[in-house]
Amino acid sequence: MNSRLFVLLNLLPWYMTITELYRCFTDAEFQYNRFLKTKDFNKANLERYDELIESIRNQASKMDLSPGINEEVHALGRIEIDFAPKVSFFVKVLSVLSFGWYKRSFIKKRTRVYFMSAIHQRHLLVQTIQNHLNEE
Description:
This protein has helices at about 5-10, 20-40, 45-65, 65-75, 90-95, 100-135. The protein is mainly alpha-helical and about 140 residues long.
């Protein structure tokens, strides 16, 4: 039996079990697909997804899977739920000329791009961790 798997099976109470970790993987996959389909980034769903990913990140850092995965886990922070893009002077001028329409669409597009990229990065991290565990 692999030593890491043995450690995972005999976890202390504050650690997740393997089945709980795999449930978190499937839950993260489901939420990721829902974000892709609906593109609805309300605060409650983002907070729930962020907490789920944070628990997976904490568990992965405790498991010490590989140096590459550990670097990714530590480099990737939390999702900034109250994200607001910076509006340049050029966008402000265009907003004045279009009676605010351009600024609203600019902010909406930038927030969608930020959340989609942040969610996708975390999804790739979860997939990497899951593939590494499946190989062991």
